[in-house]
## 1
Amino acid sequence: MDWLWIPITVWAALAQTVRNAAQRSLVATLGTLGATLVRFLYGLPFALLWLAAVAAATGKPMPQPGLAFFAWVALGALAQIAATALLLAAMQERNFALGVAYSKTEVLQTAVFATVFLGDPLGAISATAVLAATLGVLLLSPVDRERPLRTLLAGWTSRASLLGIGSGAGFALAAVGYRGATLALPDSGFLIAAAAALAAAQLLQTLALGGFLALRDPGAIAGALREWRRSLVAGFTGAAASAGWFTAFALAPAAHVRTLGLVELVFSYAVSRRFFRERLTRLEAAGMWLLALGVGAIAFAG
């Protein structure tokens, strides 16, 4: 059972790739926040069905969550929404690429927050893997290709970079919150604990973002309802990816899951090279090797 989180995380990364493609096709029609709402609104029914299916398959009763569970779910759900908003704000800055690059420190921040708030262990191999993967992702990010590290170090106090760091912190807190929620149901079994946390998070995010858009941009909600066919695809794949992430969080430390989840980038670059004949620069190749080293090491450590 100690290794089960590895294939589940790889599955979540693959499903997330499909979800991103489906969601991206809706941005032009619904706007960024409208397309984000689709992920929660249309994913919620599938999350509830998954919870019911897990309960039926395992024969376990529905969990009776306490205050701690709901507190962790609220942290994860709201931090994820805030992280998305901060990332969008970073992208609107003149030096948006720097902000996006700094948001990639999510994995490193997850390791720190998980250790502080959850007491998740982080051994020498795991710490090295997290650092290698973070550096690899930064080298693959769209910063100044001539002086990438100098640009990152010199620009860390800019507004764009601070927004990016804030976004990474939000995504890190979301991972920690979701793992904390699954750990708050110790007697339920990892599958139903993860499914219950997913359903609760999707419901809260639907209500929170849906309520915000109802006040600020009701047309986005109407558009999401009109585009129900394409939205169902995004909702289903989003729920499938989230089910994988939540289940992995129930089985392994958040930093391990998020680091291995970066295998999504390895898949993307492999496809790019195989099917589109795109070649990596030396800098990108170095980043890819560091990323692969981090992903491999965290799987070995897990």
Note: The mean pLDDT is 84.
## 2
Amino acid sequence: MGHSFVQAAAVSAAIFGLSGCLADTKTGSFVSRLKTPDAALSAQDAGPKTTAYASTDTGYDNKLNAESTVINGLVARQSALPNGSAYDQVTSAVLAANSRSAESELRAARLRAESASKNWLPTVGPSISLTSLSDVVVNLVVDQVLFDNGRKKGEREFAIADVEVAAVVLAEDTNDRAATGLELYLAAAEGREQAALDEKTLEAMSHFEYIMSERVRGGVSDRSDLNILRQQLAEIRASHAAAQEATRSAIAELNAMSVQPLQNVRGLTSLNISTDSAQPLAVTRAEAEKTREVAAAKVDRASQLPGASLSGTVGENSTFGVNVNGAQWGLGTGAQLKAIEIAKESAGRRVIQATEDSNRDLRRLESQIAATSRQAAEAAELTVQARNNLELFEAQYKGGQRQVIDVVSVYETFARAQEAEVALKYEAALLRVELARILGILADGDLI
């Protein structure tokens, strides 16, 4: 027994020593650049020379990054947000607080891919048997696949495609979070601007209400006009309160998802985005999923066919031989193989459908942005005209040619024109953010 144990141990050491020589010890990976506050903290706790996730960094990452067109495309994406702008400040604060659960799945997929990349090597394991009450035999079982109809290759392709899908999911998750933060910021900015307009309108209408009440007290004007004016004042106060509440709610929610308070950030950033800036992330994900499903189909097909492997034991009474194995064939095997081939076709059709859906969304947003921008420009012109009419009526009122209620009516038109201009301006901004989210350009790919 002692001789067989020593012989088995020697073979094990030789095999694992060879595996060590074949291993790539280079460091640095795509995943290792995906920093989070927790990751930075863990790196700091580990010591000054330890990078975040160093325990999972291997040279296989560099090989995978260099060969994957999907990951290269994601890394090459450039953010559409100008550096230092209000949008950039909001996005940076929001993404810094991201829990990045999708990153964990990407790390796991990367490790699975690294494991699958070595599936062509022989498998080794111990075999311990009790031959009698006083004799224990220890052997080393070695198994090497000779022919498997492409199963091992399909497993490697599936694992790589799984990494690519996880990378796209991480990019989608990051862009979705950035878009949510910007939507909250724009909601707060619109509420703040609307509240400012209501304050000015309330001030002017309160002045008219005072004049009207004095005229009613003097018997010059009718009380019904004063009642109408007071009702309008109540509506303006309600609108002002609602705008303030919307601003506070959006700011509170935005601060809850960021690493620092953002209530003092101001400004509306101009985004120059075209539908050709990048491939929509939905299409990129569909293509990666297609590659993964085709690889899975290869594995399924290989599982239906026989294969051959070389196996044996090293130790006492060493034996070697070629085994032919595989799934049992039946009357339904042919239909099963056809179903596997159809699965490949279905994956390709899903890419076509995703491309069509994304193109529809892009064309819709493109048209809506153009229409809303045009309407905002028209609203700005209408605001100027309404201001000119208001100034004319005020001059005529001071000259005794107009009544107070006439000036109030024109001021209402002016206030509505201002509100429409603000609403359209922020609607166009939201549409541009949505377009950038679909294209996946709300954050730099190399920083994701």
Note: The domain at 2-24+59-352 is CATH 1.20.1600.10 (Outer membrane efflux proteins (OEP)).
## 3
Amino acid sequence: MVTKQLHTARTWRKVTFSDVVVVALVAVVVVSWRLVWALARHPGLAAPLAVLLAVLVWVAHSGWVTPTLAGLALVVGLGVWWWRHRASFNNTVGRYARQWWKRWIRYGLLWWFWMGRCGLTLHDERSNKAVRPRLLKVHCTPTTDQLLLQLPAGLIPDDVTRQSDELAHAFRAQEAKTRRDKPRRVWVDLLRSDPLVETIPALPIPDRVDVADLDGLVIGYGEDGTPLKLKVHGTHILVAGVTDSGKGSIIWAVLRALAPLIRAGLVEVHAIDPKGGMELEFGAGMFTRYERDDHESMVQLLEDDAADMDTRGRQIRGKARKFTPTIETPFVLILVDELATLTAFLPDRKLTQRAEKALGLLLTKGRAPGYTVLACVQDPSKEVVVWRNLFPTKIALRLDEAVQVDMVLGEGVRELGAYADRIPETLPGVGYVKQEGRKEPRRVRASYNTDDDITTMAQLYSPSLVAIGTGEAA
């Protein structure tokens, strides 16, 4: 032991000043290289560091007085701007400051760590290193942080979707959803606060009359704060939800957006309310045809529309590739409040078969000549909605069972975040929309029209000819 201590002492005495200098230089080089590498991986931090360095040089050159006064002037100017023109400030300075903070500090600094914790890691056998998704961009809305990820080869968007719960909890978000971007890129939307908890009042009725609105009626808002635009031309719409889930909100929001076109005669609404008018009676003045008492008349309305659809198809074929509504050939919205009454619960089986045949014809052939079916159901099973797959646009409001979500929106859609079975009873009108051409569902809420809103609208936006209960022009 004594010999070892003497050897250590002799070794220490041999260290010279030049050795210390060499070690210090190596340490400086290593630290500098790591700093450069960190800035290369986090380029957004380079600008603030450059500004800080410039300020320190300024202070060293001219003292503290001038930089301090300049800093105070900048703070006061920004404060006055925020106080007097808050919207302008938030759209310029505030928005970019939040995005910078979220991109490089909130998510960026520990991104590698979080991806490992959430199970999004692959092992590269060639380099014997772990590879994980890279964070490319962060876009912030008032309620959602949208993260764009670059996926390494071997990971697909579905892998990220399967880890959505882990991502939500890791980043303390209420919910995480994925959206496909380009190949090997995927968006992860982190919902920080729910903007849909508050009831959306009836939206203003558009002043203009524009048939282009049929490709995107604004009927509410999505959870990202953007308007919910529902296409009604060239599609069919299925709305499914249990009692008091808000199917009426969808119906009246659509009719409110159509109101100017209805009054102008460019849109006709043919409505069926098998519940005896309990839902649609308030807006009867907006309907060109309306049946709510007799099942035979309801089925006859469907058959008449199917026959008129065929006649119109023969008239316009070869004249235009896309249907454009006119007063002579208006767009026709066939509104059925409770579809199950006509397809599953009629006591007369022959009448049910007639209804199914007419609806089948309308759903398969109606899109091109300007006929759209908007049907509401409580039970989305095949026994009730035989032609479920013929509705390109689907809306799932509150449902009882998880399996019903895929019945309405399509197989596997619930795994993408459409948790319609988790919607609380306190949020009527909240649901998930699945539109043609888009794989991912969107969580939305339709605006709510009161009885007074509907009554006033029906009085001000009635078509020129109205027939109630007879199927004939008045």
Note: The mean pLDDT is 83.
